[in-house]
């Protein structure tokens, strides 16, 4: 198969939902992580994701599931996105509802379709390697499996979940596919080290590729009520007259559960989950420490600076400054510093404490400061 | 002498010139340190200084020497200040010119007057103790000495100059007056410790009290050209028709030199300088570390917060946040942090590095970023 043609029968789904609280005050309700340029590429992560998937599925075969509030931003970011492929959530109901609804709609439109779900806000480098992995994942999906793509760890990261790989499955068209033994929650550093040296653990990048019907089948086995709601919604979806009332009636009642628990883990327990090792570069940019790392790679100075109008005067040799303002930012004698400067909120922390940013967001919610969330 | 009456014959002079570069970006050319409320008192340091001196000299007997650019701010801060007591500099020429001009003008107006010069941007607590020291200083001035008030050190500070005290002088009305042996530049920590334990060193607070004629005489001995310029200026001063041309002609040519070098040190060498130990609280608020200390004293949490609209969310147990904006400021996992948040500039440093802020100002000048200076 030539490298610049779409993979036959493949449909890409981009759930664009999460705010990215650990990237506050950059990411927030009205400007979630996927609407930011976090790599200096000049375009948003969402657009990067769309552009990465378009050669694999075709531009007309990408569906985006996002919140109503983001409709305008998503459509202006992705002018090539088909109108009927914008699925709007009236409120967030987690990934089972988002991906399950996409699966149900697409299965009705095109029975037997293979869908692949890819986060809107991850950073991936190495298009050819990414393509190779997706091709094998689609082949696995056609063989009836649910496929995921696991990332070969480059370090003992404690911020990611891991996939414990089992035997080779010898699926036609997916020579590198391995049975998934289990999913492992974020480990401690010592455990992460054994994973990296052991070689049979991959990072869980949250990518799932399967026939839409297989995902719905797994949902039905584990969450029959959720499936029933999604099927009812999907039936009403493509008629504008019935869609709105169905959303109002059904969506708010859907169970909030991550697809990892409703589909992936049960499927793994049933021997139905295959992992394709991905050798491309991947980062979920989960906090400012990883954003700093991502942006300082290969630079002479290790202080990363993100911001179109950044005016930074600093003797810091590490850390990151993210700015959305034109203010002069001066750093003196601070190490591994994280400074995030937005018009209405300022964050100062260190790479070491970057994971704790979410607690600030929680505190701001409790204190009624939702104007800056 | 009752404690609420003016000291006869005494005239106060407030040189309000310095920007306070080490307090950038709070202090800057158009908003120098003396125009800020740094203590949470609700009024500027200049106003605090005026209010402190008014009971000693009378409101009508306070002269302020400041830059032309600050005329409006000074007059609105000090509505009780007499028009003829606002002396405007066309450009900064250091303290010999500022205080020397005040002395020359006041000596013409009132021969034999005793003047006292007090910085516009220091923080002083303990009005009664301050008064006692000034009363003794004025008595010393009337006996022909130049008096200074030295502060009894409370810690081995390395940010201040010191005064080495000699024998008691038994001046009438100044029982605590000691001969000044010498002025000592900012010491290292070990030396400062010996000063504090030794007991014969006081902090140099830059206060000078003397007959105006004595200051002019010392200036004439050490800097005759400077004195000649000042006398010529003073002669033209009180006539609006002659003042402007005289300023334009003479002021820019005056030597820039601190009064410490043109008057105080030579007078000390000549045995003409007396120091009155001051037991009141004093701080020159030279940098953000001292500002933090000043504002956290006696608080449950040690993080000092200055700013009328401050919205700070922090787990920091030490340091200072100064804000002129309404932004939410969140600090996570940072210690001894200094965050100064202004509309067009942000500074992040630590108490330890606070002295280095001046170098940022220098760098900004060099890089042409004078818009934020």
From TrEMBL, chains A, B:
One of its GO terms (biological process) is GDP-mannose biosynthetic process. SUPFAM superfamilies: Guanosine diphospho-D-mannose pyrophosphorylase/mannose-6-phosphate isomerase linker domain (SSF159283), Nucleotide-diphospho-sugar transferases (SSF53448). Keywords: Nucleotidyltransferase, Transferase. It comes from Agromyces atrinae. It holds the Pfam family ManC_GMP_beta-helix. It is an enzyme of class 2 (transferase). Its EC number is 2.7.7.13. GO terms for molecular function: mannose-1-phosphate guanylyltransferase (GTP) activity. Residues 12-296 form the Nucleotidyl transferase domain. This is Mannose-1-phosphate guanylyltransferase. Residues 317-364 form the MannoseP isomerase/GMP-like beta-helix domain.
């Amino acid at each position: 198969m030539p490298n610049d043609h779409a993979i036959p029968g493949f449909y890409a789904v981009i759930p664009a939902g999460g705010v990215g609280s650990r990237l506050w005050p950059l990411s927030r309700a009205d400007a979630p992580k996927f609407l930011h340029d976090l790599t200096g590429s000049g375009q948003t992560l969402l657009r990067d994701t769309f552009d990465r998937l378009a050669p694999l599925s075709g531009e007309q075969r990408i569906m985006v599931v996002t919140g109503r509030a983001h409709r305008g931003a998503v459509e202006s970011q992705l002018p090539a996105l088909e109108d009927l492929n914008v699925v709007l959530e009236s409120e967030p109901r987690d990934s089972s509802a988002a991906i399950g609804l996409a699966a149900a709609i697409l299965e009705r439109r095109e029975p037997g379709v293979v869908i692949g779900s890819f986060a809107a806000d991850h950073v991936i480098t190495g298009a050819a390697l990414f393509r190779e992995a997706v091709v094998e994942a689609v082949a696995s999906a056609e063989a009836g499996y649910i496929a995921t793509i696991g990332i070969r760890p480059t370090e003992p990261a404690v911020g990611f979940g891991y996939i414990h790989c089992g035997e080779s499955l010898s699926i036609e068209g997916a020579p590198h596919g391995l049975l998934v033994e289990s999913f492992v929650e974020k480990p401690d550093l010592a455990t992460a080290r054994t994973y990296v040296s052991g070689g049979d653990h991959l990072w869980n990048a949250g990518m799932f590729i399967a026939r839409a019907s297989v995902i719905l089948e797994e949902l039905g086995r584990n969450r029959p009520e959720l499936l029933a709601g999604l099927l009812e919604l999907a039936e009403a979806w493509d008629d504008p007259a019935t869609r709105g009332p169905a959303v109002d009636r059904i969506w708010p009642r859907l169970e909030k559960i991550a697809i990892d628990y409703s589909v992936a883990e049960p499927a793994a327990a049933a021997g139905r989950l295959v992992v394709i090792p991905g050798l491309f570069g991947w980062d979920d940019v989960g906090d400012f420490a990883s954003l700093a790392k991502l942006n300082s790679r290969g630079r002479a100075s290790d202080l990363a600076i993100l911001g179109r109008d950044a005016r930074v005067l600093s003797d810091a040799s590490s850390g990151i400054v993210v700015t959305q303002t034109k203010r002069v930012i001066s750093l003196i004698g601070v190490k591994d510093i994280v400074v995030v400067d937005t018009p209405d909120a300022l964050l100062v922390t260190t790479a070491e404490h970057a994971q704790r940013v979410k607690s600030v967001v929680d505190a701001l919610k409790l204190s009624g400061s939702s104007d800056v969330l």
